[in-house]
Amino acid sequence: KGFDEKQAMAIKDIVQEVLHSSIDHQTKVLVTKAQLEITTQQMMTHLNSVKKDLVILEKSEFSMLRSETEKQTMEIQQLKKALENELDKLKGHVRLDINLEKSRAIEAHAENEKNLQMLRNKIETDVANVRTLFESYKNDVFSHCPHSWSYSVSSAPFTDSLTNG
């Protein structure tokens, strides 16, 4: 029992149409070996171009980073120099202040020593003046009363206490 001729022709036409459609589709989707090689070459060329661009970009970026690093290093060196200069200035000012303060202290000490010596001299002068005055009074007392022994004897303890004390 099979197909009659009309059915067989219809099935053959359907199968033939499906095969042609499938072959057309395969032809459109699939490429030939030559086309594949051309496409592969184009892709390899494009890939090499991208690789070169990446290398250039890396070098450029590395160069920029190196340049930025050098710039920052120079800025750090400048800041370090400026800081060292400021520290040197500060040290100089501190030394100057210390030396000025030392000089002031030495001058104040010398002034105090001078005043102290003047005070000692004044005390010695005043003591000498008092002794001279005392001797003068003592001589006056003895010169007014040399004839009176009783008066001299009674004043002797007074003069001894003045000369000894």
What distinguishing features does this structure have?
165 residues; mainly alpha; 3 helices
- The radius of gyration is 64 Å
User: What is the helix content?
Assistant: over 70%
Low-confidence sequence ranges: none
Number of strands: 0
The amount of beta strand, in percent, is: under 5%
Task: Label the overall shape.
Answer: rod-shaped
Largest sheet, strands/sense/barrel: none
General description of the model:
It is found in: Membrane; Mitochondrion. The protein is an all-alpha fold and 165 residues long. The chain is 93% helix and 0% strand. The chain has helices at 5-29, 33-144, 149-164. The longest helix has 112 residues, at 33-144. The termini are far apart. The mean pLDDT is 86.
Nutshell version of this structure?
The protein has 165 residues and is mainly alpha-helical. The chain contains three helices and no strands.
List the topology elements.
Elements: H1 5-29, H2 33-144, H3 149-164
